Amino acid sequence: MTPEEFTKVKEKFAIGPGVAKLNCPALRDEAVPLEKRIVQTAKSTDEENLNKLERAYLTYLTAKFGERIGVQNITLKLAHRCTYTADFSLWSECGTLTLYETKGGFIREDGWIKLKMAARLFPHITFVLVKSVRGGWQESVIRSCL
Fold first, then answer.
1. DSSP string of 39-72?
2. Model-wide pTM > 0.70
3. Is the Cα torsion angle 46, 49, 54, 59 positive or negative in sign?
4. How far apart are alpha carbons 60 and 41 in whole angstroms?
5. Average confidence (pLDDT) over 113-139
6. Distances (CA, A) of 21 to 11, 15, 130
7. Hey, what CATH topology would domain 3-142 get?
């Protein structure tokens, strides 16, 4: 993403000054600019790549928030050749970003580590882990361990 493209995304989604001035201690040595760490693509309508659980939660989110839900459209760069793509994203009216990750009964260790690492590297983003529990949804906010 070029700086010009990042500026357009920033204007379109009202990214606050906290995001623009992000200083990540874990990546300080690499000095990766923010525009290379957050990749925003166009709103995805490609729902055939979703599994059964993700489709069910997308139906729930769409009923709750309307058409403002992004489907696998934000990728965060965690480290060299290590990225995290959330299942769903939601920009609120006040400009805050919430990323939702749906998981079944079992969470692989690499997925759990990436989710926790993303929460630590991007404390200005709210990360929500969603599990299916007896016909409903259990949502847990992932906190950074700073």
1. EE-PPP--GGGS-HHHHHHHHHHHHHH-S-EEES
2. no
3. positive
4. 23
5. 92
6. 15, 11, 29
7. Trna Endonuclease; Chain: A, domain 1 (3.40.1350)
